[in-house]
Structures are given as C-alpha cells and as structure tokens.
Amino acid sequence: xxxxxxxxxxxxxxxxxxxxxxxxxxxxxxxxxxxxxxxxxxxxxxxxxxxxxxxxxxxxxxxxxxxxxxxxxxxxxxxxxxxxxxxxxxxxxxxxxxxxxxxxxxxxxxxxxxxxxxxxxxxxxxxxxxxxxxxxxxxxxxxxxxxxxxxxxxxxxxxxxxxxxxxxxxxxxxxxxxxxxxxxxxxxxxxxxxxxxxxxxxxxxxxxxxxxxxxxxxxxxxxxxxxxxxxxxxxxxxxxxxxxxxxxxxxxxxxxxxxxxxxxxxxxxxxxxxxxxxxxxxxxxxxxxxxxxxxxxxxxxxxxxxxxxxxxxxxxxx
Length: 318
Hints:
Elements: H1 2-10, H2 12-29, H3 43-53, H4 57-69, H5 73-86, H6 91-103, H7 107-120, H8 125-137, H9 141-153, H10 164-172, H11 176-189, H12 194-206, H13 210-223, H14 228-240, H15 244-257, H16 262-274, H17 278-289, H18 296-310
Helix pairs in contact: 3-4, 4-5, 5-6, 6-7, 6-8, 8-9, 9-10, 9-11, 10-11, 12-13, 13-14, 14-15, 14-16, 15-16, 16-17
C-alpha cells in the first residue's frame, strides 16, 4: 500500500522514467557491433555510440560514415540501413546505403535504394554523378545517362574527371551525339579542366588533326607542368608538326628531373630513328638498355625499325 501511494504521488515521473529507460535500451540495440578491425578503445566511436544511446539519429549517420572511411563496410551498411528505418527522408542516406548494398552483391535492394534517392532528389552534381555510376554498375545505362547529364547541368564542383564515366558509357553504346553534348556542357562549366582538355586533344590526335591537338596539349601542360602525359603528348605533336627541336627540348627538360623516364627516352629514340639520326638513336638506345622497365618486346620493335632505317642491326650492348 505504501509503495502504491508513493507511485501515485510520483505520477507521470514514473511513466517518463520507464519510457526513457525503454527507449535507451532500444537505441543501444541499434548500434552495430564493432568490427574486429576497429579498436575496442576508439574514443571517437565511444562518443558516437553514447550519442546514439541518447537518441541522436545524426550520430548513427556519422558512425556509418566513420565505418565507411576505415573500410568497415558491413558495419557501415548496417548503420545506414538502421538510419533509414528511423528517418527515410534523406536522399543522400539512401544513396550511401545503396552503394554499399551494391558492393555487397545486393543488387535488388540497391536498385530500390537508388530509386528512392532519385525520388527524394539530390541537389548537387556530385550526387547525380554518384547516382549515374551506381546505375551503370547495376546495369541500367539509360538511367545512368540521365544522371550523368544532370551532373553536368548542376555544374558540379566535383573534379571534371568524374564525368568521364558518363562520356565513356555514351561512346561505348553508340551515343556519340549525347557524349558530345555532355562533353560540351562539362567543358563550358570547366574550361581549364586538364582532364577534359586532354580528352579533346586526344580525339583530335586520333583523327590526325595535330594542329588543334597541340593547342589543347600545350594548355594542359601550362596548367599542369607536373603531368608527364601532357608533356609526352605535346612533344609527340611537335614531332608530327616538324617542330623537332621544340619536342626534344620539352623531353630533355623533363629528363633533367627524371633521367630514367622510359617513355620520354623511347619518344626521343623513335624520333631520332625516324629522322635518320643514327648517332642520336644509338645514344638513346644505350640509355634505354640500362633501365629494367625497357621491355624486350620494345627493344625487338626498335631493332626491326633500326635495321629497316639504317640497313644494319643496332650495336650490341657493351
């Protein structure tokens, strides 16, 4: 009787206490088990788990991101799925869960999550690019095209290289007109993007249009002087346009800092061979033979071209 009277006196306080304890137990059950690859004494994880036990949905989302960052993908997937069961209104969360589900081979579930992310809507180009990449991975190229196009329209702040997934896909399935449109939009939004300029220059080069190619190659080299591929391509374009001295100077300058660059040495050797400069060819061959990266197949090709050009085999290694 005394206990009953005390409980009556406390009233709603007891009810609140009982519900609070129940909710804390339920929230604690939502925390995924820590993977063995993650330290048991990780302070950051402990703090997040404490926030989850107190009922913070965002803390559960943060925990999922932490697990993704450290490569604990199964725990991350479980956390994202739990977050979505509590709050299914965030497109980004659906996308992140779907990416992990696809990686785990759960294609059907991943497709459902992808559709939900699209339905809720993503506002940035980076998100649309990720939707396209996931759709392509799941075999839906038509929807992936639309996602990539939206990524361009949103003028994504993501690196322009991210758009190459869409461009490659368009080209592979015969959508060259769509690929040109997407490329033009991407370049208009990112006129100094080295990846896009290199792509255009290489397509000029593949069509034999060296004069237009060299303009883009030179621009890339100015933007990224550390990019070896741009220097190789510019030197090759100079050689094709009869600007041998400029091409050699570019490669010699590069070799001053990276003397064992087999690609630069090969370009110089082939150019000397094409020009009939036997002494220079022999000199480059000597340097190439000192490098373990100089493949026997490449030496065999050079030997054949050397014999055709000079009527004799190249000198043997000393």
